[in-house]
């Protein structure tokens, strides 16, 4: 059918030559349009851009070079083959500079014409495929992620492929790589996007409350259960349940979770009634789940039930230029929030960002950029205003902890007596919790420890105070 044929626009004012060229091209299977002046050629191109333009440079109303320049400036998806009887190196170079694909000097035969047009068609089709690839697989952002690196392109493709199904996705990656962002992206790209997305951090909730948080409870089922309460699984009915830090879950609760996954039914704590819910599971951990299985801390049958589609998030240090892409995005957002002038990083600051290993990943980068914006104000971030450890000093968290331990000054400046380490640790953790308005997971993230560590230490301090 004609619509499947490559279209060729022949711009030639000598009618006898145009008829001959048209015949050659139609015999090759091309759909041919003709124009005998520049104005008509422009009208045809803008109405329906052809695959190839055969462009005579000597036209009655304008120069073919002007048309070539317009094609290039408007980025029309057409390969241009310039035709002229005045062949010279200068004309050829100028035509190529303006974007011409090839150059034909009159006179030429049908074989040369068809071979040149065939090459131009192949070139244009390949250019189209490359553009499609870049659009689909070289994205600089996707569903809440920012990043154009190859590792992130692989992540985007897995999310797109996995999202439409109900299969469980098991996300792994270091702390701060964006596991919850990934889980939300899977949900938003899925048919369940209009239903709830419920996230539950298995490390941030005391073990004795975890079952109630997942499955809910009925009134009177335990001390403090003053009414019936839905759990995360019921709240996520029809949507997605995200279990973060799944390897922190107790073994006995893992067996109940396995039964829930297999049957789609649950029992609230203290109830004998079965409830049926429809949820899509996404889980995540910053540990090696298979190593946890081998160590006996994670059920093997649950691992194989959950580990259907593995998705590994790359650490920031392996994402190359994504570091600057993220940093610039964060800088502009924070500058807007704080009403500061920052626009970009200077060359030296950018080099420092790229060279730093980012053990805390994107979360650490967020903290660093926020620190820069809050404490400084200029158009460019210089290396001089980068906070520790990027400026060679100790980390922000370590510095804060040491300052707390020494009454608010650096150890070298403090004359305070040495105090028990457990007390220093206790005060540091309590100050972090207070600074985060009681948000223990947030305090744990800033201290670079697991929330379960804080809960465990708080419990030990309370038990010690009762002795």
TrEMBL record:
Record's keyword terms, sorted: ATP-binding, DNA-binding, Nucleotide-binding, Phosphoprotein, Transcription, Transcription regulation
PROSITE patterns: RESPONSE_REGULATORY, SIGMA54_INTERACT_2, SIGMA54_INTERACT_3, SIGMA54_INTERACT_4
Annotated ranges, domain Sigma-54 factor interaction: 145-374
Domain Response regulatory, chain residue ranges per copy: 7-121
InterPro entries registered for this protein in UniProt: AAA+_ATPase, AAA_lid_NorR, CheY-like_superfamily, Homeodomain-like_sf, HTH_Fis, P-loop_NTPase, Sig_transdc_resp-reg_receiver, Sigma_54_int
Transmembrane segments: none
One Pfam family recorded for the sequence: Sigma54_activat
Protein name, entry field: Sigma-54-dependent transcriptional regulator
Source organism of the structure: Aeromonas bivalvium
């Amino acid at each position: 059918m004609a619509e499947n044929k490559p279209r060729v626009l022949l711009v030639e004012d000598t009618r006898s030559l145009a008829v001959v060229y048209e015949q050659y091209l139609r015999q090759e299977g091309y759909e041919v349009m003709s124009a005998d002046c520049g104005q008509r050629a422009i009208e045809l191109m803008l109405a329906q851009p052809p695959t190839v333009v055969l462009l005579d440079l000597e036209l009655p109303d304008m120069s073919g070079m002007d048309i070539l320049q317009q094609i290039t400036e408007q980025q029309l998806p057409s390969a241009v083959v310039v035709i002229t009887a005045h062949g010279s190196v200068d004309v050829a170079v100028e035509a190529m500079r303006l974007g011409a694909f090839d150059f034909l000097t009159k006179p030429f035969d049908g074989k040369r014409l068809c071979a040149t047009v065939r090459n131009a068609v192949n070139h244009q089709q390949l250019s189209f495929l490359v553009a499609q690839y870049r659009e689909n697989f070289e994205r600089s952002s996707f569903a809440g992620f920012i990043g154009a690196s190859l590792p992130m392109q692989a992540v985007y493709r897995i999310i797109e492929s996995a999202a439409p199904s109900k299969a469980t996705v098991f996300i792994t990656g270091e702390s701060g790589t964006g596991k919850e962002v990934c889980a939300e992206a899977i949900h938003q790209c899925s048919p369940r996007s209009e239903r709830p997305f419920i996230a539950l951090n298995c490390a941030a909730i005391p073990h004795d409350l975890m079952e109630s948080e997942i499955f809910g409870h009925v009134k009177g089922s335990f001390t403090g259960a003053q009414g019936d309460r839905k759990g995360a699984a019921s709240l996520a009915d029809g949507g997605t349940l995200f279990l973060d830090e799944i390897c922190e879950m107790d073994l006995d609760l893992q067996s109940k979770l396995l039964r829930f996954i297999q049957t789609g039914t649950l029992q609230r704590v203290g109830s004998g009634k079965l409830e049926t819910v429809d949820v899509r599971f996404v889980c995540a951990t910053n540990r090696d789940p298979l190593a946890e299985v081998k160590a006996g801390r994670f059920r093997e049958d649950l691992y194989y039930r959950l580990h259907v589609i593995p998705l590994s998030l790359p650490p920031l240090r392996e994402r190359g230029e994504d570091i600057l892409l993220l940093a610039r995005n964060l800088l502009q957002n924070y500058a807007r929030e704080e009403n500061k002038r920052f626009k970009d990083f200077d060359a030296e600051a950018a080099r420092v960002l790229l060279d730093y290993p980012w053990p805390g990943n994107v979360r650490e980068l967020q903290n660093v950029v926020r620190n820069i914006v809050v404490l400084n104000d200029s158009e460019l971030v210089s290396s001089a205003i980068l906070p520790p450890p990027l400026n060679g000093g100790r980390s922000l968290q370590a510095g804060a902890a040491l300052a707390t331990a020494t009454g608010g000054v650096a150890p070298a400046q403090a004359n305070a007596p040495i105090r028990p380490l457990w007390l220093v640790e206790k005060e540091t953790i309590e100050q972090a919790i207070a600074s985060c308005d009681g948000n223990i997971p947030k305090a744990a993230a800033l201290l670079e420890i697991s929330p379960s560590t804080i809960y465990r230490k708080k419990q030990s301090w309370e038990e010690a105070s009762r002795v």
